[in-house]
Design brief:
By secondary structure, the chain is mainly α. The chain folds into two domains: 2-67, no CATH class; 78-276, Orthogonal Bundle (MetI-like fold). The chain has twelve helices and no strands. The protein has helices spanning 2-39, 44-47, 62-67, 78-109, 115-124, 134-144, 150-175, 178-186, 191-220, 223-228, 237-240, 252-273. It starts with a helix and ends in a 15-residue tail after the last helix.
Length: 288
């Protein structure tokens, strides 16, 4: 009895330690984000105070009012930047997902000459940092007239996202038993119908994950966007943060307010597709 009670006590202590460790880790992870949100409501005096003011004395919407103010009042074209980011991110994500689904399915299901080498070369492109491509991309786009256009940014983000989406979706389609599609074809489905009605629903967790990754990559990317956009009609929200900088000062409150607006769509998207972000949907897919 004593050993059993000691075992239960040890188990409870380990569980408590586990939760405490997770709580501390989450605090460390979320503190920067919470600090940004807090600074978007704090007056500039408190943001720049030394030593830092950890507990705000007052909260207001001054930074948001200034951001949406008119010309000469510190306002910036937030809605234009938001529209640009939304068009570029959503379009590039959809294209990358379509290509990623086709490529991932081909690598998972078919055998062809040079398959392994092609896959390795495709994945090797992920080892090249995007900023290293800024100069050659700038030269090519300058000669083709794609600088400062939505199309140019969409092409860049599709090229950045396709290798990862193919890799991720390939892994999920490999988890889908081939017997599912074969059984569907025996029941009268065409190859295309078997894919959309059987294999796609089972692998949608991986497709949703790839979509979120592609969207967030496009939504938050700054280095290439700052090089390839010039006018208000094409700038994205990360580039719009530069509007809060001047020669001698930085408007930290305004930057934090815009950062909060950038976070909201990503949170909404994650919330909407969270039910699809569960791996292992194929377990038990084939049963007698």
């Amino acid at each position: 009895m004593a050993s059993a009670s000691q075992h239960r006590l040890r188990k409870r202590l380990l569980k408590a330690g586990h939760f405490i460790g997770l709580f501390l880790a989450m605090c460390v992870i979320t503190i920067p984000g919470l600090w940004v949100v807090l600074n978007s409501f704090r007056p500039t005096v408190e943001i720049m105070a030394k030593p830092p003011v950890w507990i705000p004395n007052s909260l207001n919407l001054d930074h948001y009012r200034a951001m949406f103010g008119g010309a000469g009042q510190g306002g910036i074209p937030v809605w234009t930047y938001f529209t640009n980011s939304l068009i570029i991110s959503v379009t590039s994500t959809l294209i990358a997902l379509l290509i990623g689904m086709a490529g991932g399915y081909a690598f998972a299901r078919y055998k062809f000459k040079g398959k392994a080498m092609t896959f390795v070369m495709l994945m090797a492109t992920r080892a090249v940092p995007g900023v290293a491509l800024s100069l050659p991309v700038f030269i090519i786009f300058g000669r083709t007239g794609l600088i400062d256009t939505h199309l140019g940014m969409i092409l860049v983000y599709v090229a950045l996202n396709v290798p990862f989406t193919i890799w991720l979706i390939d892994g999920f389609f490999r988890q889908v038993p081939k017997e599912l599609a074969e059984a569907a074809e025996i029941d009268g489905c065409t190859r295309w119908q078997a894919f959309w009605r059987v294999e796609f629903p089972v692998a949608r967790a991986g497709i949703a994950s790839a979509g979120i990754f592609a969207f967030l990559t496009s939504w938050n990317e700054y280095a290439l966007a700052s090089q390839l956009t010039r006018s208000v009609s094409s700038k994205t929200m990360p580039v719009g943060l530069l509007d809060f900088t001047s020669q001698f000062t930085l408007n930290w409150g305004g930057m934090c307010a815009l950062a909060v607006l950038m976070i909201i769509p990503a949170l909404i998207l994650t919330f909407l597709v969270q039910k699809h972000l569960i791996a292992g949907l194929t377990f038990g897919g084939v049963k007698g």
